[in-house]
Amino acid sequence: MKGESKLEKKQFRAESKRLLDLVINSIYTNREIFLRELISNASDAIDKIYYKTLTDENLVFNKDDYYIKVIPDKKERILKISDTGIGMTKEELEENLGIIAKSGSFAFKKEHEIKEGFDIIGQFGVGFYSAFMVADKVTVITKALGSDEAFKWESTGVDGYIIEPCEKDSVGTDIILKIKENTEEENFDEYLEEYRLKYIIKKYSDFIRYPIKMNVTKRKLKDGTENEYEEYMEEEIVNSMVPIWRKNKNELTKEDYENFYSEKHYGFDKPLKHIHISVDGTVRYNAILFIPEKIPYDFYTKEYEKGLELYSNGVLIMNKCSDLLPDYFSFVKGMVDSEDLSLNISREMLQHTRQLKFIAKNIKNKIKNELKNMLKNERDKYEIFYKSFGRQLKYGVYSDFGANKELLQDLLMFYSSKEKKMVTLEEYVDRMPEEQKYIYYAVGETNDRIEKLPQIELVKEKGYEILYFTEDIDEFAIKMLMTYKDKEFKSVSSSDLGIETCENEKDSNSEYEGYKEVFEYMKNVLGDKVKDVRISKRLKNHPVCLSNDGEISIEMEKILNTMPNSQNIKADKILEINVNHDIFKTLKECFEKDKEKLKLYTNILYNQSLLIEGLPINDPVAFTNDICKIMI
Ligand SMILES: Nc1ncnc2c1ncn2[C@@H]1O[C@H](COP(=O)(O)OP(=O)(O)OP(=O)(O)O)[C@@H](O)[C@H]1O
């Protein structure tokens, strides 16, 4: 044996050199994942032993004998990752670590025709080399199952590797990394720090199914003293092994989910609702999703990143996989773990999105159903949710040209003039009187302000319910929706309300005929500020209001004009005059006797109608001067 121990320095194969360079410099965006890769390899190696014991009756798998140990040595700048897995023979060392991108695990899988339910993570054969991102030199000491020889593989990177026999007592593999010296840009010391290693293990490998052990520093009171402490080392299992999402729902309490929510830093609040999904179909996956109670501070900003954590068989692949959530459910937090994902080489992105698409669609429906159930059975909770995230659902109705409106329409709620609380569209439509043609809504800054709008008088008098829209997005979403259960939406400010007034049309028209000139004159005074001046059919007590013709409402004009690059979009405004109000007599008198006064009054009335609408007055100084003129 010893006679053979001539140093065999071998070159990596040519294509491997280039690949090694690629691994070290560009495949991974984050150095710390080297530990995830090495731990995944160790876990695979233990899986392989386990698999052998299933098929070889001479072997027994004693769970306690199988673990991974991470041992940092700050002084020597050494980080060692040991496992009690299957180990490698000399040939396997040569094959697996001499040719980059040759995955022994993939070959093992093929060779043993591994069936469902038994999963080995490695498949590309590059993970191991990520060690060179943090180490100058990597040494592998390994003894294969069933062999009494051990071998050492050593490399400092692109210049090749050596393999020589060595001593090792037990079956398994030690990966020994000589950690690089710090540079100006990079702090490599952190990969020797206990707390940092623990953090990385927890982050990426918490759910590896074998124990990952580490000796950790603890403190205790020194014997015979009252306040002197001494440090000692104790072995600890760092990972939690069985992930909560693989547990049976019945075993878990609300607190378990809440703890998971805060451990994972999904939010500082308590989740309003959790959804635990286990799917065992064509694509198998487990997921735990949360609907938060409170809006994350950056939720309605550009900085907010939606997405779910994505695990492949217990190993974290992506922190925020945005493809898993549609924008309208971007408030959902949580994770997905699947055994069936096709990963790409760095495990950072997914090569094929078919499985991911399937999972995303599934998740979307689950969230929708959960929200529907909440709305039906836990109304108070739903209202809390809606207060925080209702706006996002409305954006969902509006965006993508209304592609998701059907899915979301039953989740919408608005404040009702009648019920004095939030109601759904279904509730509104179900109690509509038979003769009511439209779903009426009014737009304003607050419910109180809408309540006082002159425009709502007629609809209210008719006894019809009005939905109050107080958020910018509301009217845009509703315009996209167009109808709900075949009922069209109608703004109380639109020129045609579709309500038959009590006075017959002829009467009011003849009245209009009589005063046509007055309105024509007023229209001329206002020029193109308004499209028309008309008799109001909706006003009961108030003298004037604005309404609009066409698709763009006055509220929409307001919102559109606050946007960058707004094209000064204008609603077609109608100045409506209440002919039953005394003001009308005054206007008529002025028309006959004092045209200058009629001009003055017209401008004042117009500006008043703007104020009621919450629109800016073009010339506030002129307006106050006009008011003064009538005071003196
Ligand atoms: N600790 C270990 N014990 C036994 N064999 C190992 C160990 N580490 C690596 N190997 C062998 O070396 C091969 C190459 O490892 P490497 O991490 O480069 O690729 P992989 O795990 O197969 O794929 P991936 O790129 O997905 O990580 C593995 O497939 C495995 O056969």
UniProtKB/TrEMBL annotation:
Primary localisation category: cytoplasm
UniProt keywords, alphabetically: ATP-binding, Chaperone, Cytoplasm, Nucleotide-binding, Stress response
Residues binding ATP, per UniProt: 37, 41, 83, 88, 96, 102-104, 123-128, 173, 347
Gene3D superfamilies, sorted: 3.30.230.80, 3.40.50.11260, Heat shock protein 90, C-terminal domain, Histidine kinase-like ATPase, C-terminal domain
PROSITE patterns from the UniProt entry: HSP90 (PS00298)
GO cellular component, one term: cytoplasm
A Pfam family per the record: HSP90
Region (A): 1-347
GO molecular function annotations of the record: ATP binding; ATP hydrolysis activity; ATP-dependent protein folding chaperone; unfolded protein binding
Compartments, as annotated in UniProt: Cytoplasm
Annotated segments matching region C: 559-632
Function in brief: Molecular chaperone. Has ATPase activity.
PANTHER family reported for this sequence: HEAT SHOCK PROTEIN 90 FAMILY MEMBER
Entry-linked NCBIfam families: PRK05218.1 (NF003555)
Subunit structure: Homodimer.
Protein known as: Chaperone protein HtpG
Taxonomic source organism: Tepidibacter thalassicus DSM 15285
